[in-house]
Design goal:
single chain, 246 residues, alpha/beta, 10 helices
Length: 246
């Protein structure tokens, strides 16, 4: 197959490794790490890249997206004549861990815990990033939503208590995802130094690029959403389906 892959630059090393041994011909394009700071900006950027890929003379059989929901940045993305393929993931933390099951195992109880990888360390900007799963699973509802559901007094109390306790716990640690392919580059010690300078505990998790490999090798099973031409990505906001096509 002739494929187009658009991915965040923090995944550059892992993506390039699997493109090199993929049976398919793949054109690569990366977006800046900083684009994630504004979900509307990233969504517009991705849609423009999808449109450009479809308008190019190259006849891609599919456009692959190296992202998750990413704070709703991929919600409503669509293509006119080419199918889109995206992992069922809340954000790139899942892509570094290798599965949504491992992501849920480590982040379900602390969905905004900052995480880091070599890809974050070597790109401009902060050395870590908060997971956006608190947003995409609905855990961090707005104050107005709590009041509408539970009434003024109870809603305000629940909102303030829940958010304060979760943020306090999450703010004390950073997770470093150690990818086997790049372990020799000693990114772990660099991340540990950053975390210690901020007075945070560093937790190390074994990484895996299996999900990226499956995306790049065309193994699109139930771990992926295939969006047919004319459909758009819609958020489901659970721990399993995560997104669907409509």
């Amino acid at each position: 197959m002739y494929l187009k892959l658009i991915a965040c630059e923090v995944l550059t090393r892992e993506v390039c490794r699997h493109v090199a041994d993929s049976p398919h011909t793949i054109d690569l394009e990366f977006t800046p790490k900083a684009a994630h700071d504004d979900s509307n900006r990233l969504r517009a950027l991705l849609q423009s890249r999808i449109d450009a890929a479809e308008d190019s003379p190259r006849q891609y059989e599919a456009i692959l997206l190296g992202y998750g929901l990413c704070g709703n940045s991929t919600v409503n993305l669509t293509a006119r004549k080419t199918k889109l393929v995206i992992p069922r993931a809340h954000d790139c933390c899942t892509l570094f861990l290798g599965s949504r099951e491992r992501f849920r195992q480590h982040f379900a109880n602390a969905p905004s815990t900052p995480f880091s990888t070599l890809g974050y360390l070597e790109r401009d900007g902060a050395y870590s990033r908060e997971s956006t799963s608190g947003i995409t699973t609905g855990l961090y509802g707005t104050l107005e939503e709590y009041i509408a559901r539970y009434g003024e007094e109870n809603g305000r109390y629940l909102f303030e208590t829940l958010h304060a306790s979760i943020k306090a716990a999450e703010g004390k640690r950073v997770v470093f995802i150690d990818m086997p392919e790049t372990r020799h580059l000693n990114a772990l010690s660099r991340c540990r130094a950053f975390a210690e300078a901020e007075g945070k505990e560093l937790m190390v998790l074994e990484g895996s690029s299996r999900l990226l490999r499956k995306l790049i090798h065309g193994e699109w099973d139930e771990e992926f959403l295939v969006v047919e031409p004319g459909q758009r990505i819609v958020g489901v906001y659970d721990w399993h389906e995560i997104m669907r096509a409509e």
